[in-house]
Fold this protein.
Amino acid sequence: MDCIFCQIRDGQIPSTRVYEDALTLAFMDINPVNEGHLLIISKTHAETIYDMSPPDLAAVSATAKKMAEAIRQALHSEGLNLYQANGAAASQVVPHFHLHLIPRWKGDGKGFDWKLVKGDPERIRVTAEKIRAQVPTERT
Ligand code: 5GP
Ligand code: ZN
């Protein structure tokens, strides 16, 4: 297995680790967008959200909450972006599921540069209908 994040998990390549539990690992990004930028991975290799088990995804989410609190306490960050890419079309570079936590400060000049353009309400409605048709119905 030549997955770089599996190798980080196994300590085969160095990383700056900040937290670990049974299902997840948090370590610093080597190319930080801002001070404190870290990544949370599932210990189980899964390429994208489509391959993740719901318990692994929930565990990443629980670790994100812990790390968010710790980052804010440690760095007095004013905001925090959570970012997670799935697939090359979404700019995923490392094919092992990871969630970015990126601390933000007012006026730091970082962030996405997509422009807000008002959508056609009818098209939005039709698209929502297509998605809604694929949502599994809850069993109670
Ligand atoms: P992606 O675009 O796949 O969401 O982001 C991959 C992230 O992994 C990038 O922010 C990149 O800096 C980070 N990264 C890539 N290789 C390594 C590595 O060997 N160690 C660490 N700590 N981060 C890495
Ligand atoms: Zn992996």
Q: What stands out?
A: The longest strand covers residues 98-104. The domain at 4-113 is CATH 3.30.428.10 (HIT family, subunit A). Strands lie at 17-20, 24-28, 38-42, 79-83, 98-104. The first helix runs from residue 4 to 9.
